[in-house]
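Title: Prediction job returns without error message
Component: structure pipeline
Severity: low
Priority: P3
Assignee: unassigned

Description:
Job completed but the reporter wants confirmation the result is attached to the right record. Sequence as submitted:
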Amino acid sequence: MANATTGRSFFQRLLGVCATRPPADGDAWSFDGQRIAIDLDRTPELETPPGAVRLEGNGLPERVLVVRTAEGYRAFRNRCTHAGRRLDPLPDGEAGDGCQSVQCCSVGKSTFDLEGRVLSGSAKSAVATFPTQTENRTLTVTLHVAM
């Protein structure tokens, strides 16, 4: 597999600067101790593939990356299993309008498929994924692994 990137410079990767930002509307999501509820009407970042947001704070025990793919939504524990850095969706294809993998923001460029399995890079184990469900323009992410 060719090790594509999200276009960050070497220094951005060295410092672990990820490309994915939190939602512009900080009140577009909430956490109840087990589930994250995201109001899709208030999260335009997830409108089209390969849109993504990173969720942190608000009582979350771990960082979460939510990605819009052509098939729907995917959620990942936003922590690379190699160095603990954040993940970013990796646009695929010439148009860059899809997403079939996520990549660590570090120089190691560990890349994972949408099931969390390692495709390439320094990571030796999968990254955790979380189930998602969409109903009435609300995306629910259920945290199910021991944190």
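Comment from assignee: result matches the submitted record. The mean pLDDT is 87.
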